[in-house]
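BUG: 3D viewer hangs when loading the predicted structure for this chain

Environment: internal workstation, default settings.
Expected: structure renders.
Actual: progress bar stalls at 90%.

Input used:
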Amino acid sequence: MEKRLALAFAITAVLLVVWQVFFPPPQPTRNAVAPPAATAPAGGAAAPATGTPAAAGAVAGPAAQTVVVRSPLYEYRFSTAGAALTGAELLKYPSYVHKGERVQLVPRGASDVLSGTAASAARSIDLRTVRFTPSAPRLDLRPGGPAQTLTFTGTQNGAPVAEVTYTFRPDDYTVDVRGRLLGLGGAGTLTTSLGTGLAPHDAKEHGTARELSFVAWNGRRVEREYLRSIKTGDTISGPLAWAGIKDRYFLMALVPQKTEFTRLVATDQPDESYSVGSEALVSPRAAAVVSLPIGADGTFAYQAYLGPLEHDRLVKVGHQLEEVNPYGYRWLRPVVRPIAAGVLWAVRELHANFGMAYGWVLVLFGVLVRLATWPLNARAMRSQMKNMAVQPVMQARMKEIQTRYADDPRKQQQEMMKMYGELGVSPFSMMSGCLPMLIPMPVLITLFFVFQGAIEFRGTGFGWLPDLSLRDPLYLLPILLVVSMFALQWISTKMSGMADNPQAKTMMYTMPVMMGFFFWFMPSGLNLYYVSSNLASLPQQLLIARERRAASEQAKAEEAAKTAKRAPAKQRR
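Structure tokens produced before the viewer hung:
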């Protein structure tokens, strides 16, 4: 049974690798469409489509000014040209692209993020060409302080055309956006730009560029458009409860209030390269816009989330925004999601309440999982020990029964059941005894997915490990994993007094090597957890091995006594 369990574990590991390589998360079917253009006013030209950076160049008049909004978490920059967001720096997260800088969400040169066009049957307004006057030249928010607002008032030819108000909180990445369009002449559509992606900020090994995508929630599932695959105008049809752009760790999302987006449209843009020393990082580029219906009064409102993919913060926003970062493939999520929530909660609580580094948290978590499953593992091991202790005797007697009653299957079955009763085992106990040993497996599989996008481990060092979300640069943990697995296998087979089994011996050498290969490229945090769990299993494995040896010797002695007792009976016959 032990070799079956090891084989099942190995098959699971191989399937994870094969599935990741050959079956990436499916992309939704795309419909090629042109990006929405604003309706032209009577007798006039149509306003340019949102999402084209060149639109900002059409603004005439004095140079645009920048308004800075700073809190302990972020520094946002807004332009008086279009009241657009031109910078979103996250002060808690270092950039791996530009040393000494922080993560920047808005790409360099972007000029229309959170700006756009509005159109009704009577008139269209290109907000990107409107000059806005801010209510304050700068906002500084203090920790724990009240929310503050920044209002932009826009005019054209001396007449007011729009008013946009942003509300900021010092300890939150959400921004409330509400506005009013004057003189639109009736109900219409507001087309707001999400920009051309997120600025590069992660190391190449993080694989962030592969995850860069436009996303939206249609009420049932997350629709996704990967930037690397956008070749023409692609649309995600609504109604959409939210829409945005994300990479592996960060998100810029818009959540409409009291209504929903009608669609999200993405078009390809030229690639842009950022040089980092001798290495050039190429970030896929694409522009996207979302369409929001507005009433006859010209008012609109939505909430923008500009920050990390922290599960608790996304849940707080509501509207299933946490679904933007699902754990595991769709068929695994019913099992993985609750475990992932529990794992992340435990990791954060240990880190926050005890002030432990995340590396030590993973070590302690690995030990705690083993302690929590100790009784179940002990029961499983003892059941397995009992079965394996009588295995040689059972095989000999089984062979004898099969030979003696070869022509009578019914009698053969009766004698088999009689043998199980005499030995105190059953075929069902052989299988059920191993089931508790599978309990740590869902945790391990969940951690595999958690480490693919948990912001908590990004850039977190531990010992010689510079980043728990990346692989061990010295490969010491995978090597230690192989050694610890071999030690567990050796104790189980050699120190327990088990009879030599060629298959078990082969598994003892091949299983650790196979798992070491699988974990060689895994995040170092995952390796750290698994190594800690293995080391915590050694004392229990030693105790059970000693019990197994004693039980095996006792079983052999009892069988020898029974054999000696049966011998005179055969002679008398």
